[in-house]
Each structure stands twice: as C-alpha cells, then as structure tokens.
Amino acid sequence: MTDENKSAANVTPLRSTRPCPECKRPSQREHYPFCSSRCRNVDLNRWLSGAYVLPAVESADDSETDLED
Q1: How many angstroms from the chain centroid is the CA of residue 20?
Q2: What CA–CA distance (Å, rounded) separates 44 from 22?
Q3: CA dist 16 → 9, 36, 42, 66 (Å)
Q4: Do 8 and 2 meet the contact criterion of CB atoms below 8 Å apart?
Q5: Where are the domains of the chain?
Q6: Per-residue model confidence as pLDDT tens for the chain (69 residues)
Q7: For residues 20 and 39, is the Cβ–Cβ distance under 8 A?
Q8: What is the C-alpha separation between 32 and 30, in angstroms, rounded?
Q9: Coil, helix or strand for 1?
Q10: Could you tell me the pTM of the whole model?
Q11: Taking the chain, what is the end-to-end CA distance rounded to the nearest angstrom?
C-alpha cells in the first residue's frame, strides 16, 4: 500500500451510522440517512403524496376571528 492509501483508510466518517428510517438497516454515506436509493425514494414518495401531513385542528379562537371579518 502506498502512503496515500493508508491515510485514506484512516479517514473518520463525517456522520455516524444510523438505522435507516424505512428498513432499519445501517445507513450509507451517499444516501444518508437512508441505506439505499430505494429507501430514499420511498420516503420522497410519501412526502409528495401527502402521507406525512399533520391533521389541521381549528381552535375556538380561529373561528371567532373569521366571524368578525
């Protein structure tokens, strides 16, 4: 091995490995925080389809301001 390869092997990762939010396998650096492009695309599809939408709840204060306008 050359000196250049030895130093590249000792590089510490920028982020720690975490479980993939989709399948729980260890994350990969190029797809972080996911383990693969497949899991990344599954998550993107859920965002785009509205699966992550929080339900809206109207409070009593909101309805009173609408009546005044």
Answers
A1: 9
A2: 11
A3: 16, 16, 22, 49
A4: no
A5: 23-49
A6: 555 556 556 766 677 889 999 999 999 989 999 999 999 999 999 999 999 888 888 877 766 655 555
A7: yes
A8: 6
A9: coil
A10: 0.57
A11: 76
